[in-house]
Design a protein that fits this description.
225 residues; mainly alpha; Rhopdopsin 7-helix transmembrane proteins; 12 helices
Length: 225
């Protein structure tokens, strides 16, 4: 009886809304700081890898902005209406795919340097195809999450290989970011999965993910002008 009364006064989902809101805003702010902070670095070097590295964090920031609809819709008691009205699910899938593809392309752009196709438009087209396919055939976003994870893993592996090569330059120093960002991504997915199993574990995984993002920001602030 006491537990039922406590649940009536303190909805179990309410603390989770706050955690989700805070961590999402935190990720959004860090992503946009990284995007704007690396602007001067790109202008000084005109390095194509840095260009798409910046694009990746621009889209990560957009994804975080779009994800705010979930806690905000719960606060406003809108349910799924807000998400359905704005097509948020598709937009999150598209922006997330753009972010991961840009991140991967920032590492492998030299492989496609001889192609005449405009890189950004090609990436956008691929992102649209993946997003539409995942929306139509993927069960509740599981397919697109799997695709993002595999692309993230590929970027992390390539960056680790590049780190083993003792090269100089600002872009090579940014290679540290990719495996750490992949770990942060895994922590975020684990937090979502554990949400239904253990609320404290979900909170701690969100905290770890946020700490890893802060480590990335700190590293970038040290190597940028």
């Amino acid at each position: 009886m006491r537990e039922m009364i406590m649940r009536g006064f303190f909805p179990p989902s309410l603390p989770l809304i706050y955690v989700e809101l805070i961590t999402t805003i935190f990720a959004c702010v860090i992503s946009f700081i990284i995007y704007f902070k690396t602007k001067e670095l790109y202008e000084l070097t005109s390095h194509k890898g840095i260009k798409y590295f910046r694009y990746a964090f621009l889209f990560f920031g957009i994804v975080s902005l779009l994800k705010l609809h979930r806690p905000l819709s719960q606060f406003l008691h809108l349910g799924r209406e807000l998400s359905l009205f704005f097509g948020v699910r598709f937009l999150i899938g598209f922006a997330g795919t753009m972010a991961v593809l840009c991140l991967l392309y920032s590492l492998i752009w030299k492989t496609f340097s001889k192609t005449k196709t405009e890189d950004f438009f090609a990436i956008s087209f691929i992102a649209i195809l993946i997003s539409v396919f995942s929306l139509l055939f993927g069960p509740r976003g599981n397919l697109i999450t799997l695709i993002h994870t595999l692309l993230f893993l590929a970027a992390a592996i390539i960056s680790v290989v590049q780190l083993t090569k003792k090269k100089k330059g600002k872009h090579h120093q940014l290679a540290f970011v990719y495996p750490v960002l992949f770990l942060s991504w895994i922590m975020e997915i684990a937090a979502q999965i554990s949400m239904r199993i253990s609320f404290p574990l979900s909170i701690w995984l969100n905290v770890v993910s946020s700490i890893l993002l802060f480590v990335i920001l700190y590293k970038i602030l040290r190597i940028t002008p």
